[in-house]
Design goal:
195 residues, 0% strand, mainly alpha, 8 helices
Length: 195
Amino acid sequence: WQQELTLSHGMSHTLSRMLAPRPSERFHSADDILQQLQALESGFSETKVMRTVAFAPQPAHSQTIPANNSGQGKLLDASVQVPEEIHGWNWGAFFLPGVWCIPNRVWIGLAAWTDCSLVTLPLTLGMTWPIVAIILGVKGNEWAWKSRRWKSIKAFKRHQRLWAIAGFLLAALFLLLLALIVVMILALGFSFSFR
């Protein structure tokens, strides 16, 4: 704010104290702030804004996103707005769509298992899992936020980060096993060719 406004010394000090990084340096209550502002009232009218700051007050009837509005809507309910911090790719949902969906209550992820039977596998060509993985990679964060109540955005992000780590580890393990199988097949092929 110091780059956008030039305030009186008293008002500048008050605002800096309100925004102090350590809670011990901040005002202890709203009453303390009010008393400080009342003491500065005469100097407040002389405060000048050196640069215009874009600020559009919202009418009382407009909808604002609460700090934690999780668990308030269905997956496709567009009326439930998701905080900007939630948007983005979800690696845990991408790598483990059929498992990630259960604790996150995004039941559409169970569709990843539909091509696991011998009856449906020829019909889907095994593409259900990757398709669901891509969809949940794109929309997983938003849908998990809407489907389940979270303590905070920080708790949500921590949960999704753990799923991403688990997904990366399982994908790495799968690739390692696949490489090991290929090496074994090649080794067996060479041994049979020399006989």
